[in-house]
């Protein structure tokens, strides 16, 4: 009986370590998302400000390379914003039908995707901030 209990403890410990690797990866992916999700409102606000500045210069007939820079930065903000929601729509935390290896492979792929989203948001914000500070 003691050996049966010991065997069950051993197998549950092995199972939980496998599960914890998946859970750890899942937490890491979510943490990358959570880092920039609060910046989405700021991203949209910068996008609007950049579009308004470009429109204002256009309406005054001002020929300036800034118009193109404002529009490019506004597009970067829009693309980064949309990228977050595209990633969130395709991300599926439910991996019940996957084995551990499949779950880890899925989460590794998602980590790459969400890191790109994170980087795009930070890059767009930095560009917008630098242009709007001028």
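^ structure tokens above, recovered residues below v
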């Amino acid at each position: 009986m003691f050996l049966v209990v010991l065997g069950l403890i051993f197998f549950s410990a092995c199972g939980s370590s496998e599960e914890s690797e998946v859970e750890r990866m899942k937490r890491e992916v979510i943490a990358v998302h959570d880092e920039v999700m609060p910046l989405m409102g700021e991203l949209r606000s910068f996008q609007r400000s950049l579009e308004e500045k470009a429109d204002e210069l256009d309406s005054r007939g001002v020929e300036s390379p800034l118009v193109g820079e404002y529009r490019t930065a506004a597009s970067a903000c829009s693309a980064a914003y949309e990228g977050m929601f595209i990633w969130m729509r395709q991300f599926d935390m439910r991996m019940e039908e996957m084995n551990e290896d499949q779950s880890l492979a899925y989460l590794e792929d998602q980590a790459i995707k969400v890191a790109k989203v994170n980087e795009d948001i930070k890059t767009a914000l930095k560009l917008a901030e630098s242009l709007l500070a001028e």
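DSSP finds four helices and no strands in the chain.
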